[in-house]
Amino acid sequence: MAAQVLSFFRRPAAPRDWSTQELAEFYRVEAALIQVGLSVDSERGLSDEGEPWFVFCRAEDDEVVVHFARIDGRYVISAPAYCGTAVGHDFRALVRGVIERDPALRPKPTNNNLFLHPTAFLVVLVTTALLKTGHASAAAAAGHGAGADEKVSGAAPPTIAIVASELPHETLILAAINAAIAAPVLVP
């Protein structure tokens, strides 16, 4: 007589980290924000279930500004500045949707064919969330700068960083978009 053992539990899936492209986009945003003088850090990891997460935090106090995750194949964006959580299967469409739901960021109808680069939407989302918290400060003013141990080199020079805290939000967002599109990124 042979016995057979049946398992009633599913095996845990192998950890599914962010793709290289997804990580590059996140780190490009971080580099752009640092380059324009905004004080921001990022952290990433896997949940106990093996699902990836990525957060952007204010460098001064490590307060989470935007939290990204992928849970059961669906992307999740949560940011206190946007009052809620958004969930969807297409990351870029989800980012665009969060931006379009915000009255201050909703694109104004125009008669031209000007479109934002897909990377720009993520820059706008994170930069605006950072600025909406009201605690965004220049890296130099807070005593933070890109040191030898940071992921990205090329922080804003002190004069640019000090002025960054006094610029209008729209100017900082445009500068961050420009930096993100033009600059290469180093993925750790």
Question: Topology, pairings included?
Answer:
Elements: H1 20-35, E1 40-46, E2 52-58, E3 64-71, E4 74-79, E5 84-88, H2 91-101, H3 118-132, H4 158-164, H5 169-182
Helix pairs in contact: 1-3, 1-5, 2-3, 3-5
Describe the overall structure.
This protein has 188 residues and is an alpha+beta fold. Helix 1 (20-35) crosses helix 5 and helix 2 crosses helix 3. The chain contains five helices and five strands, in the order H-E-E-E-E-E-H-H-H-H. A hairpin with a 2-residue loop joins strand 3 (64-71) and strand 4 (74-79). It is elongated and about 75 Å long. It has helices at residues 20-35, 91-101, 118-132, 158-164, 169-182, and strands at 40-46, 52-58, 64-71, 74-79, 84-88. The chain has a five-stranded antiparallel β-sheet, with helices on one face. Helices cover 34% and strands 18% of the residues.
